[in-house]
Amino acid sequence: MCRGEGDLLGRVHRGPRRPYGLGAFLAHGWQKVGGYAIQIFWQDGHHDGIYSYEFLRKLGEQPETA
Fold first, then answer.
1. What is the DSSP string of 5-18?
2. Quick one: what percent of the chain has pLDDT higher than 70?
3. Measured on CA atoms in the order 32, 45, 3, 65, is the torsion positive or negative?
């Protein structure tokens, strides 16, 4: 879920609202961001946000839900 991006003062800046179609959930590529994260390119054309390896690891450690 897109949460927006925080600045140094802790204020969150949210991007424009987009309708979520199927393409918003299907990745078609990615690129490395420094040594700490990846940026995902989605089929609907957006590529907002970066996903840290720490965040992705925590997601992978969560139990599956129905």
1. EE-TTS-EE-----
2. 71
3. negative
Would you kindly state where each structural domain of the chain is located, as residue ranges?
Answer: 5-61
**pTM confidence score:** 0.60
Tokens of 51: 């996903």
- Convert the pLDDT of each residue in 19-47 to its tens digit: 777 777 888 999 999 999 999 998 888 88
Give SS3 for 58. Answer: helix
One-letter amino acid at 35 equals G
Residue type, 27: A
Nearest by Cα to 54 from 31, 25, 33, 30? 33
